[in-house]
Design a protein that fits this description.
mainly alpha, single chain, 11 strands, 21 helices, binds glutamic acid, two-stranded parallel ribbon
Length: 508
């Protein structure tokens, strides 16, 4: 008999439990084949929190065995994006570590060595079936509406036959010899999962062309890197049976597995670009604070207490347990994401909001980076009036553009101008107010000016909007916004007067 069952795979008890004293070692193994998807960010976050909470190690391993699709740019984007989110790893291609290399493509010799071990032990066998034969096999199965699976043609070839074909240079794949029986494991998220081995066919570990496959290399690397827990997306649940059988064949303890619920679009279909942005870079470019992205991702399948939605990453680290992750798909709520963004911006220190908004102001063409730096205190005050109102950092430029406009050409929004024009005596009121303002102490505060302006309106026998609507239009071109006398102070007296004078012409 070629296949000698090992002690762990002959019964149905599932993976060996790793020793409690072992520090937890978790990883993410992204394929560098495109943009940094939010699903990857969530998986990274949950693994990272596991390591940080339990004093373990978090490892980044780049799964770049798909040569055609893997790119160095994508790997760099993953590293940069995850770091931007605030994640760090203890081992990885960019930081090294005791189990280097951390790029799967650089471990290929080891994978072949491991395949050789399984061949020698009879847990794997060489399959000489040609592509034509396999295609015909599959076509027949499809026609008969059977599950596509390998029929085991090469499973029990005579050793002499194998030798002869090898000597003749016949190409072969290496297949895993799936034993009979069943395996049960305790998924950290889903609880007890049992699969019958009959559901798994003798899958290809090493292709005839193209080298080792994902299910094989991922286990080789996870064993070599002493990974103790694997948290990953539910789409990988189908792979876990194959992988557990490999651990058993290697006689290695299997990590604990936890499969995180799929992220779903509002229509409960797997989240995709059709629903909206799914790449980290999109949210970043759109002005979401990284803290909001992290907070939102924490909520994709996990909850703090069922009521508190806004919390920081330290709280997440303190409280996260994969056993609390929900089984049901996590519906991605775009509106809530934006709301969360606004909530977090409101809670941030002003200086930070100003710093984060600055690039959007520069990109919006309102000022250069140098100009903003030179007027840092002033810019902070400008931001202060909007911090409560913006949902995204990128909302800021549109709300403060008037501060950067030429006094005679402040763009008037239609509603602001219509509101101003409602007041028949607007030109006289503006002119009188301009004279009043010009006479005020140049150092007067917004509060003092505000109180004075109210007294001015009362003395003129007007209602407040009769001054304030034309004045707001004159100074900001907007129908609403922050305290007008903050605006007067921030613009500087000369500019405020010039804007009012321009409005006396423009609103005539
Ligand atoms: N490269 C796989 C992915 O990005 C890794 C899956 C795993 O964690 O085993 O989905």
């Amino acid at each position: 008999m070629l296949f000698a069952p090992c002690s762990t795979c002959s019964d149905a008890v599932g993976p060996m439990v790793t020793l409690m004293s072992e520090p937890v070692r978790v990883r993410i193994a992204p394929s560098p084949t495109g943009t940094v998807h939010l699903g990857l960010c969530r998986t990274a976050l949950f693994n990272w929190a596991t390591a940080r909470r339990r004093g373990g190690k978090f490892i980044l391993r780049i799964e770049d065995t798909d040569h055609d699709r893997s790119t160095a740019e994508s790997e760099a984007a993953i590293v940069e994006g995850l770091r931007w989110l605030g994640l760090d790893w203890d081992e990885g291609p960019d930081v090294g570590g005791p189990y280097a290399p951390y790029r799967q493509s650089e471990r290929i010799e080891r994978h072949h060595e491991r395949a050789g071990e399984l061949l020698a032990a009879g847990h794997a066998y060489r399959c000489f079936c040609t592509r034509e034969r396999l295609d015909a096999l599959r076509a027949g199965q499809e026609e008969r509406k059977e599950t596509a699976r390998y029929d085991g043609q090469c499973r029990d070839l005579e050793p002499d036959d194998v030798e002869r074909r090898l000597a003749a240079g016949e190409p072969f794949a290496v297949r895993f010899r799936v034993p009979e029986g069943a395996t049960t494991f305790d998924d950290l998220v889903r609880g007890t999962v049992t699969f019958a081995h009959a559901e798994v066919d003798d899958w290809v570990m090493v292709r005839q062309v193209g080298g080792p496959t994902y299910n094989f290399v991922v286990v080789c690397d996870d064993i070599d890197m002493r990974i103790t827990e694997v948290l990953r997306g539910e789409e990988h649940l189908v792979n876990t049976p194959k992988q557990l059988l490999l651990y058993a064949a290697f006689g290695a303890p299997a990590p604990a597995f936890g499969h995180l619920p799929l992220m779903l679009g509002p229509n409960r279909k797997k989240l995709s670009k059709r629903h909206g942005d799914t790449a980290l870079g999109d949210y970043r470019a759109n002005g979401y604070p990284r803290e909001a992205i992290v907070n939102f991702l924490c909520l994709q399948g996990w909850a703090l207490d069922g009521a508190t939605e806004v919390f920081d990453v330290a709280t997440f680290v303190e409280r996260f347990d994969p056993r609390d992750v929900q089984k049901a798909g996590a519906v991605f709520d775009f509106d809530k994401f934006k709301w969360l963004s606004g909530e977090l911006i409101r809670r941030q220190p002003l200086a930070l909001v100003a710093e984060r908004c600055a690039p959007f102001v520069v990109a919006g063409g309102l000022a250069t980076e140098g100009e903003l730096r030179e007027r840092a205190r002033w810019f902070e005050q400008v931001v202060a009036g909007e911090q409560e109102r913006i949902l995204l950092y990128s909302d800021l430029p549109g709300r403060i553009a008037h501060f950067f406009a030429a006094d005679e050409a402040v763009p008037y929004a239609a509603d602001a101008e219509a509101g101003a024009r409602k007041h028949a005596g607007r030109i006289e009121t503006l002119a009188a107010f301009r004279a009043w303002l010009a006479a005020q102490d140049p150092a007067a505060s917004a509060e003092v000016l505000g109180a004075g302006a109210k007294a001015f309106v009362a003395a003129a026998g007007l209602k407040l909007p009769a001054l304030f609507q034309p004045l707001r239009c004159a100074l900001t071109g907007m129908a609403g916004g922050r305290d007008l006398f903050d605006v007067v102070v921030l613009l500087g007296r000369e500019h405020a007067l010039a804007r009012i004078e321009a409005a006396e012409r423009r609103l005539a």
